Amino acid sequence: MARAAGAGYGDPMRWLLVLVVLAGCGHASRSAKPPPIAVDVERYREPVEAQVQPFLDAELVSGLVVGLYDGGKTEIYGFGAGPGKGPPDGATLFELGPITNVYTALLFADAVQRREVDLDTPVSDLLPLGVTVPIRDKVAITLKHLALHSSGLPRQPPSVAARGSAPDPYAGYDENALYADLIRSELDAAPGTQIAYSSYGAGLLGLALGRKLGGGYARALEARVLRPLGLKDTSAAPPAQLAPRRAAGTTDDLQKAPPWTFDALAGAGAVVSSAADQLHLIDAELDAAAGGTQVLRRAMKLTQEPQLDRTGANVGLGWLIDANGRYWHNGGTGGFHAFVGFDPRTRRGVVLLASTAISLIDRLAEPMYKVLEGAPPPPVKLATAAELAAFVGGYDLSGTTLQVIAEGKRLYLEGPGEPRHRLAPLSDQEFWLESLQSVAVFEKDGDKVARVVFGSGDRRIVAPRVAK
Predict the structure, then answer these.
(1) I want to staple 247 with a disulfide (CB 3.0 to 4.6 A). Which of 165, 288, 338, 355 is the partner?
(2) In which element (H, E) is residue 170 found?
(3) Angle at 249 between CA 246 and CA 250, to 5 degrees
């Protein structure tokens, strides 16, 4: 996220910058083995519905599919609005956004297994002559650096970052634009020294592999990964005939959002898929973790290998690994958010596909693992429409008055010269600003709301309530 320097907290046209600084740097049929068939389809319905219902009641998500994997058995539940008249289901298609990294890394690992490239192959070797790739401290960017997000490339290419919050920020971003950006890019760190998520780097990896393997990224992914695994609903370039099955994406305020198109950066976020296919991917990944020898299992095993010399949380090629040894990835686009995870020790997995661009969906992952364990936690308690009235009013942010407004079941933050932002409930008094990746907590003195505290990590900014 770009940062502006020198803005005063009291500037009424720049009040949002006070909050922005809290945000961290941080979107044809095939013949093969079919996806696993769901069994015991009603076993977990009641606890799953209990966990999801608060999100629906608070109008946090327009449509959601939950997929559960338990030792080879799968269940799929759909909620909210689907592409037809009913809720979405296991065949409904969602944008996976950054989970595309998992597929790009698997394509990379397969090419490594076939000795077509090495982990340490410089990306410049796979690009046209004359294309300049930035270096730092005399270290060249390798394919492994790109897969691990340790290339030093910024989060976005310069020309994409300049588009700001465009509805489809990657539209029309072709190879020539990417090559031009490489020439004028500077690395944030020497390759291999820091890990920082980069759509720029992931997209470059996909483009380079598409050139090396032939036919471009989408075609190489189809031939080398998707078709062999039997992922019939998954594609980086969905054919037109699948359009009726695509969910309609919405913003965090449930407004219509256009599909994202990635062009040259397809390897960073272009994959569209279904819950059924993601459960099939989990089945294959767990088989690979157990030493399976079927198609692509060796490549999957390579992507699962921890890459950092440390205990606790780690990273693989495309996968993140939490402190409990679970593999996962998440992310969103302008109208979607998704989570996919699996645990090799328990042979369980969770898929969450939402047609709303709100990262709070990730908070359902841990409860779903608990559901699979037979120990579901109490559902989250969110502020009701009646309770929102207590937060309405003005708040003084360093001389600028911010207004908190309630409309039905939704709460909003407004300030001079800026559009309003949804305050999505996290609890009965905590709220989430998706656009800023920040938390707003309303604090009371006695039984009256006295202030709102904006925070991210250890940083806090207090805005006292303005007396009426």
Answers:
(1) 355
(2) none
(3) 160
> Residue 316 pairs with which residues in a beta bridge?
none
Query: CA of 270: how far to CAs of 97, 273, 339, in Å?
Result: 6, 10, 15
Share of the chain above pLDDT 70, in %: 91
How many whole angstroms separate alpha carbon 49 and alpha carbon 45?
6
Q: How far is the C-alpha of 226 from the C-alpha of 242, rounded, in Å?
A: 16
Ordered by start, the domain boundaries in the chain are 15-23+382-464, 45-373
58/64 Cα distance (integer angstroms):
14
The mean pLDDT of 6-29, rounded to a whole number, is 38
Pairwise CA distance, residues 407 & 388, whole Å: 9
pLDDT at 467: 87
**263 touches 255 (CB < 8 A):** no
Identity at 426, one-letter amino acid code: L
- Residue 206 has φ and ψ, to the nearest 5°, of -60, -45
pTM of the model: 0.91
pLDDT per residue over 302-330, tens digit each? 999 999 998 899 999 999 999 999 999 99
Q: Please name the amino acid found at residue 86.
A: G
Q: Could you tell me which residues come within 8 angstroms of residue 279 by beta carbon, excluding any fewer than 6 positions away?
A: 35, 36, 67, 69, 74, 76, 90, 349, 351
The confidence score (pLDDT) of residue 41 equals 60
> How much is the CA Rg of the chain, to the nearest whole Å?
23
Residue whose entry in the numeric block shows the structure tokens 């976020």: 269
Residue range 193-240, pLDDT digits in tens: 999 999 999 999 999 999 999 999 999 999 999 999 999 999 999 999
